[in-house]
Structures are given as C-alpha cells and as structure tokens.
C-alpha cells in the first residue's frame, strides 16, 4: 500500500443482442471449484523470495515477477488486452510495466462492459540502511493481493462464467504514488473504455478478529459492500473506522479508476492496523502469511465477483 502521511503509534502509513445462447451462470452454492492453498503458497512464496529483491519497480529483479505473472496468463489461456501483456508506464522515470490480461464475457451485449480486477505487485525493494535483513519482501504488501488475483484468473479462465468481460491488471509502481494504476486508468479513459466497476485486492495475508472477513475502502461511496454481502449470502465485508480515518480509499490502485471514470472502484483488505506489525519492514515475510485464510477469502470472493460480472443491470452504483 502506498505510504500515506498519517501517524500510527508505531508505524507510518503512508449494439442490441441477438438470441444467442448464453452460458448458464452458476449460483454461489453450485461452485464446486476449490481454491488450492498449495497453489496460493507456491505463488506467494515465489513473489516474496529474496531473488526478487523486494520487487522495486524499474529494477532488474522485478522482471522475474513480470515474467511469472505473464506466465500465469499464458498457462491459463488468457489473452493480453494490449499488444502484449506488458503495459509500459508513461509516468515513471524507469522502465516499469503493468501486466494486463483480459477474459472476454460470454454475453453478446454485456461483454462490451468491463469489470476490472487488480492488485499491485511491486514493493519497496532493498533498504541499505537496515540492520540485518535489508530486503523488503512485501509478503502482505502486496504479494498477498497479487496472489489472490492469480487465483481469480485461474477460476474464470477455467469456468468462463462471466457475462461481462474482465480486465485483470497487476500494477507496478503503486509504492511510488499509484503510478501504474494512474497510467492505466488514464490510458483506458482516452480509449473510451466501458468500465462498470473496479475491485482491487490489497494486503489480505492475515485474518482479522472481527464479525466480517474483510473491509472495503470507501465504504460509504457506493453500495458495493452491501451488494457483496448479498452476493456472498453472509457478512463478508464490513466497515472499518481506520480506513476512513487514514483515508485508505485514496491510498491504493482503486482510486485512479474512481477519479478517471467516476464509477465504483474500491479495495478489499484484511489488514486492520491491529493484526500485523510489519508494514514496510523486512520482517514482512512469507512465513508470517496465513495461506489458509488467503485461500478461504478468495474462495468466498469467487461467487461475489461472478455475480458482479453477471448481473443484468449495473447493480453496484455510487451513492449520491
């Protein structure tokens, strides 16, 4: 998550359709696909390995993460949205890439609308001033969110149950000021991209001790939270006062999509300022991540995202 300037006790956070046959859409109770904790662990462990040297945007080591994410698309038959998966940032002084793919919707009309699913894969790299371990591996921030998106890709690539098209984006240079998402949102806006909504995954590596699984940033800006809970059939996402206090809605890659398109664009997160103390520290390591929690949360999000892509109308809307 991009550093924001608020002090905590210990940490600074910084055309009409014809009568074509449409694939039958599964209801949440009918989803038999299971998110593999083993796969979650394998992806997360690679993204947080020392050989990636903390995934600093523009570095040689982050190229290994780029290649890995490109391969996730290739192995699952997901096409690049642009000429290639690599979308070069226009607003960064080094060469850095978003990694972008698309799964076309199966409805002849709704496929022209897009749901964007994203997460940033960069982190803050090496801290030469640190004592001992100098590599900020960024397990929770945000290898966890990146891993979640890879699992969502696998599900929709295999099942193809989405009526709307889904644009998947792994953002770079989030830690430099949301540069990857700012670049992509502006680029898509200039191309008259038909976006319905955007969902971002950020810091989901550890569970909260609350009566909901995750919170959503910008809770009061739209009805996304209530629709997600309706889709899930449970109290899946809730309101966290800290996200409002520390203005987290503006601190991750959902925000440029909100400002460019004025549509619901929000982040889901399970870091609540009480359950993890290693924000932007070398101790943010793979071994501290709860991969069972991560797999379970993604599993619960699959029917939510499926219903979001399949609703006949734009049920998720900004509040006036």
Automatic annotation (TrEMBL):
InterPro entries: M28_fam, Peptidase_M28. CDD domains: M28_like. Residues 98-299 form the Peptidase M28 domain. Signal peptide: none annotated. Transmembrane segments: none annotated. It holds the Pfam family Peptidase_M28. Gene3D superfamilies: Zn peptidases (3.40.630.10). It comes from the Bacteria. This is M28 family metallopeptidase.
């Amino acid at each position: 998550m991009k550093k924001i300037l608020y002090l905590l006790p210990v940490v600074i956070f910084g055309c009409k359709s014809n009568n074509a046959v449409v694939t039958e859409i599964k209801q949440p109770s009918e989803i038999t696909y299971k998110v593999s904790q083993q796969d979650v662990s394998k992806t997360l462990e690679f993204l947080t390995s020392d050989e990636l040297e903390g995934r600093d945007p523009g570095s040689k080591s982050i190229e290994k993460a780029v290649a890995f994410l490109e391969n996730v698309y290739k192995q699952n038959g997901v096409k690049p949205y642009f000429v290639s998966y690599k979308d070069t940032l226009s607003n960064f002084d080094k060469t850095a890439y978003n990694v972008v793919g698309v799964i076309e919707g199966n409805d002849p009309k709704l496929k022209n609308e897009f749901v964007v699913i994203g997460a940033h894969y960069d982190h803050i790299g090496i801290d030469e001033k640190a004592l001992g371990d100098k590599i900020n591996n960024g397990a929770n921030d945000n290898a966890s969110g990146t891993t979640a998106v890879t699992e969502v890709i696998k599900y929709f690539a295999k099942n193809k149950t989405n009526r709307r098209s889904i644009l998947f984006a792994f953002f770079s240079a989030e830690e430099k000021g949301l540069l990857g998402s700012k670049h992509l949102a502006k680029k898509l806006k200039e191309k008259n991209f038909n976006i319905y909504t955007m969902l971002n995954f950020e810091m989901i590596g550890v569970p909260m001790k609350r009566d909901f699984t995750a919170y959503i940033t910008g809770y009061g800006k739209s009805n996304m939270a209530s629709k997600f809970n309706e889709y899930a059939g449970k109290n899946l996402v809730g309101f966290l006062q800290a996200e409002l206090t520390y203005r987290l809605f503006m601190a991750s890659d959902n925000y440029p999509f909100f400002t460019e398109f004025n549509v619901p664009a929000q982040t889901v997160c399970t870091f609540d300022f009480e359950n993890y103390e290693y924000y932007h520290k070398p101790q943010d390591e793979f071994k501290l991540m709860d991969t069972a929690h991560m797999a379970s949360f993604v599993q619960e999000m699959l029917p939510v995202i499926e219903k979001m892509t399949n609703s006949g109308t734009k049920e998720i809307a900004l509040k006036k």
